[in-house]
Write a structure and sequence with these properties.
The structure is a single chain. 54% of the residues lie in helices and 12% in strands. It has helices spanning 2-14, 28-39, 60-81, 84-90, 95-104, 109-112, 115-122, 125-136, 138-146, 170-183; strands at 21-26, 44-50, 156-161, 190-195. It has a 4-stranded parallel beta sheet with strand order 1-2-3-4, with helices on one face. Strand 3 (156-161), helix 10 and strand 4 form a beta-alpha-beta unit. Helix 1 (2-14) packs across helix 2 (28-39). The radius of gyration is 18 Å and the shape is globular.
Length: 204
């Protein structure tokens, strides 16, 4: 997360995009935005967390599954190095691409048009090296997040999905919902909004 924060700050500076900023972060990006706001409070006037991660949400069972995902990503990186991933992907034999493309049909054409760009990025070894590294360092990232503190009255919106993923147990959903509510305690100027139609896919 610290690397993401440093890169975002350098990017905004280089692009001459002047503060103040309203930061919006989805899933893991919510943690990145929290850390940014804590380290650059003079630049941030508002924060929106969209189905954001919480530093206490990774249980031993989830971490065990994440280790398997990291191994998969490393295998995909190896496959991309020799062109196998591109060959399989271009033949439409990867369920991952089929599922994402099907899901994208629910969104506006501008969003659907991003699928080919995403698909192309997945053929690059650096994509899988980055994603596997990101997951492998998750515990370290969450420790960075746990040590951070937002300005006490920073305007904060916690946007939370209200529809349970069918693959998610009722117990896990209640735990996740409780952690989402806990995010509102990060600021005295916060509000939670429940969006009934969105189903998150990360760390469930």
């Amino acid at each position: 997360m610290q690397q993401s924060v440093d890169e975002l700050h350098a990017l905004l500076t280089k692009a001459e995009i002047e503060p103040p900023y309203i930061l919006v972060g989805h899933s893991l990006g919510g943690g990145n935005m929290r850390l940014y706001a804590s380290q650059h409070p003079e630049e941030v006037v508002g924060l929106v967390l969209v189905d954001s991660v919480h530093e206490d949400q990774i249980t031993p069972a989830i971490w065990k599954r994440m280790k398997r995902v990291i191994l998969l990503y490393q295998l995909l990186r190896s496959a991309s190095l020799v062109g196998v991933l591109r060959a399989i992907g271009d033949m439409n034999l990867l369920p991952m691409f089929k599922n994402i493309k099907q899901e994208s049909q629910k969104y506006p054409l501008a969003v659907q048009a991003l699928f080919d760009t995403f698909k192309s990025s997945c053929y690059r070894p650096c994509y899988w090296a980055t994603t596997s590294s990101e997951l492998a360092n998750m515990k370290r990232s969450f420790k960075q997040l746990q040590a951070s503190t937002l300005p006490g009255n920073l305007p904060l919106i916690v946007l939370t999905q209200g529809s349970k993923n069918p693959e998610m147990s009722d117990e896990r959903f209640q735990q996740w919902a409780s952690l989402q509510l806990d995010l509102t305690q990060l600021s005295s100027n916060s509000k939670q909004i429940i969006a009934e139609t969105h189903i998150p896919q990360v760390f469930k």
